[in-house]
Write a structure and sequence with these properties.
- This protein has four helices and two strands.
- It has helices at residues 7-19, 22-28, 33-47, 63-88, and strands spanning 52-54, 59-61.
- It has a two-stranded antiparallel ribbon with strand order 1-2.
- Helix 2 crosses helix 3 (33-47).
- The radius of gyration is 15 Å and the shape is globular.
């Protein structure tokens, strides 16, 4: 079984899709550019597909990356909903 993506990796992909810049995406995620790049590479390796086209001048999301991006947004929304529910449930541990 492949390694599951982390929430952090999915956030990196979403930030990159919004900025199309590794530098700006890293700033938005409060990490260094190398950390963001490594996280995205791990995500691609774990999924076994290329999500991002990179060259010195441009960044673009691949067609497979666009599908993963939509699912990543849904996963992140569901995760945030889970945390909100847990916080508002009022049930002590």
């Amino acid at each position: 079984m492949a390694a599951l993506p982390t929430i952090k990796q999915l956030r990196y992909l979403i930030a990159l899709s919004q900025t199309l810049s590794f530098t700006k995406a890293a700033e938005a995620c409060f990490v260094g550019q190398s950390t963001l790049s490594a996280g995205l590479k791990e995500l691609e390796d774990g999924l076994g597909i290329q999500l991002v086209e990179r060259d010195r001048q441009n960044v673009s999301i691949t067609p497979a990356g666009m599908e993963v991006l939509e699912r990543a947004k849904a996963i992140l929304t569901a995760s945030e909903d889970l945390v909100e529910y847990a916080g508002s449930s009022g049930m002590p541990m």
